Fold this protein.
Amino acid sequence: MPDVRKTAIITGAARGIGKAIAQRLATEGMNIVISDIMHEEALKTAAEIEKSGVRALAVRTDVSSAKDAEELIKLTMNAFGSVDILVNNAGVTRDNLSIRMAENDWDLVLDINLKGTFLCSQVAAKEMMKKRFGRIVNMASVSGILGTAGQANYASSKAGVIALTKSMARELGGRNITINAVAPGFILTEMTEKLPDNVKEAYIAQIALKRAGTPEDVAAAVHFLVSPAANYITGTIINVSGGLLI
């Protein structure tokens, strides 16, 4: 018999925000696909999630590769028979001042953060269109709205994600596919926890709620956007920044 549960793919889900999203969606009884370039960590995360009683699949994916994006969707369809939800969370940073930024650092960030979001959405949308249902959530950033010194590549990629979100929402809305984005602010992850204390304090001083966000804060927003409560929301960017962006 076909699996009647919804299936959610989360890219970059081996750890951090992506893992928190996968864990949150698993609480709804969804099949979970952990897509990540770090396959060993993805396997561990999938095993953890299966302990909650849902099915999970780990897929090694370089989202900047069209071949890998197609293989991700193919393996998901083979395992679960549907692609209902896609969360494009995979992303990287290569920070430097614009005048010092290497071309390959520009290309890498744009390829993974923006091109990867496009490629995975493109392939997933083709399956979603067949059943006239789909929920896509893209990971943007307040950097893509405000701009950030030392992150011209990252901010540009996230601004592109916002424009991509709005464009695809217009294209696919008639097929009952919603496409939204979440724009996190300063979130405590493995990456940001390594920052010097004075840098973290400077960020927090700008936040209205006077604390850093958590991966679970971001996961809650994603959960809302893929839930029935958000059926009439598309092309929207939700800022999860604690008031950093007001």
